UniProtKB/TrEMBL annotation:
<keyword id="KW-0813">Transport</keyword>
<dbReference type="InterPro" id="IPR013525">
    <property type="entry name" value="ABC2_TM"/>
</dbReference>
<keyword id="KW-0812">Transmembrane</keyword>
<feature type="domain" description="ABC transmembrane type-2">
    <location>
        <begin position="35"/>
        <end position="269"/>
    </location>
</feature>
<dbReference type="InterPro" id="IPR000412">
    <property type="entry name" value="ABC_2_transport"/>
</dbReference>
<keyword id="KW-1133">Transmembrane helix</keyword>
<feature type="transmembrane region" description="Helical">
    <location>
        <begin position="114"/>
        <end position="139"/>
    </location>
</feature>
<dbReference type="GO" id="GO:0046677">
    <property type="term" value="P:response to antibiotic"/>
</dbReference>
<feature type="transmembrane region" description="Helical">
    <location>
        <begin position="35"/>
        <end position="55"/>
    </location>
</feature>
<feature type="transmembrane region" description="Helical">
    <location>
        <begin position="151"/>
        <end position="175"/>
    </location>
</feature>
<feature type="transmembrane region" description="Helical">
    <location>
        <begin position="187"/>
        <end position="208"/>
    </location>
</feature>
<dbReference type="InterPro" id="IPR051784">
    <property type="entry name" value="Nod_factor_ABC_transporter"/>
</dbReference>
<keyword id="KW-0472">Membrane</keyword>
<keyword id="KW-0046">Antibiotic resistance</keyword>
<keyword id="KW-1003">Cell membrane</keyword>
<dbReference type="GO" id="GO:0140359">
    <property type="term" value="F:ABC-type transporter activity"/>
</dbReference>
<comment type="similarity">
    <text>Belongs to the ABC-2 integral membrane protein family.</text>
</comment>
Length: 271
């Protein structure tokens, strides 16, 4: 059995190498089971086409503007949310099949399993976001902001996904059966729809609109609309006026909560 590195730099290189090995394992599964990746890429495309073309003609954008340009940034955020269900499913499957416990008996970095899962899911999210942006361009959506603003908007979307990855890892380690996974996947819809992604909160009943505005996802929706230069951003409430700030604060808070919970849960799993 190889010796466990002692020095901090050696342990960091060890953790990075083992984490990358687990990442490659995840990407190898894409090749052997491409249906998982294809499904992850296809579902948000169907959603944006359905809302853009089936319902778009009946939708009114606050302040005027093209509903497709209003919708597409919201769908970028929804894609990040839907990815959480994939994380939960993959982590729970490895745990329930004993693969995670097997990893814990090997002379590998304790962080490699959760870090490798996070990197794999971030790569998948980058691919999904790139594909959806291409579909958006074909639909007529455009990023009217500067190149720097566009890059910042993409960064905020991936920051949100990074936070949701750790929420997904924790929930996946927590789940003991398919019922729990189904519940998480089902909750993605009300949590995602109760935002400003599809309609303005001002069109909702007052109490519901307030909940939608304070939904952490709405801050990223509003901030990315503003950065992309798309219609429908803004609002009178404090949370809407500070959407760019909160699009950073919310993911940082979520990561600060779920990252240590994920590590602790992984360490406390029974072998």
């Amino acid at each position: 059995m190889p010796a466990i590195p002692r020095g901090p730099l050696s342990r960091l290189r060890w953790a990075a190498a083992d984490g990358w090995t687990v990442t490659l394992r995840g990407m190898t599964h894409w090749v052997r089971e491409p249906g998982t990746l294809v499904g992850a890429l296809t579902f948000p495309i169907l959603m944006v086409l359905m809302f853009g073309y089936f319902f778009g003609g009946a939708m009114q954008v606050p302040g005027g503007g093209d509903y497709k340009e209003f919708l597409v940034p919201g769908m970028f955020v929804m894609t990040m949310v839907f990815g959480m269900g994939e994380t939960v499913t993959a982590v729970a499957a490895d745990k329930n099949r004993g693969i995670t416990s097997r990893f814990r008996t090997l002379p590998m970095s304790p962080s490699a399993v959760v870090v490798g899962r996070a990197v794999t899911d971030m790569i998948s999210s980058v691919l999904a976001l790139a594909v959806l942006m291409g579909v958006g361009l074909l639909m007529g959506w455009q990023a009217h902001g500067s190149l720097g603003d566009t890059a910042l908007a993409v960064g905020l979307l991936l920051l949100l996904r990074f936070a949701l990855v750790w929420a997904g890892v924790y929930l996946g380690l927590l789940m003991s059966g398919p019922e729990g996974i189904t519940m998480v996947q089902t909750l993605e819809f009300p949590i995602g729809f109760l935002t400003s992604a599809f309609v303005a909160p001002s069109t909702m009943p007052g109490w519901l609109g307030t909940i939608a505005e304070w939904n952490p996802l709405s801050s990223t929706v509003l901030a990315t609309r503003e950065l992309f230069g798309n219609p429908g951003f803004g609002g009178d409430s404090w949370i809407a006026q500070h959407s760019l700030l909160m699009a950073v604060v919310w993911p940082v808070v979520l990561t600060a909560v779920f990252f240590p919970l994920s590590v602790r849960r992984f360490r406390n799993l029974t072998t």
